[in-house]
Amino acid sequence: MQALKIVPRLLTEQIQHSLKVDRVVALMGPRQAGKTTLARHLLICDSPVQHYNLKDPDVRRALLANARQEFAHYADRLIILDEVQLVPSLLELIQVHVDARPDRKGQFLILGSNHLLLNRQIKESLAGRVMLHKLFPLSFAEMSQVSGPSLFARLVKMRSLQQAASLIEQSYLPVEQNAHLAASFQNFLVFGGFPEFLSRKNQQDRKNWLKSYHQTYLETDLRELVDLRNPESFERFEQLFITRVGSLLNISELARDCGLSADTIRRFLGYYRQLFVAWPLVPGHANIGKRMMKMPKWYFTDTGLARSIADDFRPESGIFFENTVIAELYKELSIDGMERGLCFLRSSTGVEADAVVSSQEGRVIFFLEIKSSRFADRADIRHLKKCVDSTPESLGILVNQTDKIVKMDRNIWSIPAHWLLC
Description:
Number of helices: 17
Structural class: alpha/beta
Number of domains: 2
Largest sheet: 7 strands, mixed
Shape: globular
Strand content: 15-25%
């Protein structure tokens, strides 16, 4: 099979900077998101690299027996430990090693595909010594190899409402590029952004790969994480959970439908978070009413995986369009550590927004309504109008699959998804 094509990652600059100012850098994310590729091929280091692939049992055994000597021997190199959660005892030794040379930066780059386990070990062993980064599957901009920050990334850096509005009004995509990106987004919408798809073009091959990926985390990753004695119960949970993506998640109701306890459902959701499969979007408010309820909405990190679980690869599926857009916003915000500021709105006064995010300096609030339609309908902005009218320094965006940007109302624009995200 053709080797995977290497494309620039948005996170590369931050990783390079961290290696210059931090002693230990941790890069976490789902399996097959490109962590090893980024570490081995895209990072420009001033010193040689020593790489250990801990997925290899021989490497694990050798390093467990000789880690202290290995680290001492390669003390002047950047030491990369891939899938470090498989040997968490190494983290204590890393602490000893970096504390012996506190002024030397870029000593270790540790990679992991198990979020909370790795995070807990880091908190216990490397507090104050490590910078954490998260790498997800390719964003739409990365997959399309569009240079420069996306329109959304530029919007959240605006210092005023006037600047944000001006940026939207001045945005333009040439006709040919607009058509190309719209077609690319349709492909991205169906299969997601795993780097594997840069070389795997056949649609059935992609579906087979996603199915295999799903089985891998069921049969391998989950077993590394916990002793899952009844995998059938987890599979039943998945089939019912996938129907609730993008909706308020009532755990008690889901537990009843699965024939499982609420605690079991919470544990299963925790596994999803630990393996970077899915995450909760929490409700919030922005000076226009208190929270109506505390139930979150859940979304998949990658829509292709979600479609594989649901066995639904229809491009017109609205919920997967919403999942794709929300996941892309999350990826973009995580680059600058702003993902915690992403929320949705459903207030007691009937005001709703699929996504809410503040600008980097908190001066502008963006409300987003996500519709998979191919035309801009004024009926789709009724909630956005309430949000914008009730909130100073706010801007509404109707995200859809149209072919151009259209101003719908005061401080409300219809923006095609492929335009916003590239």
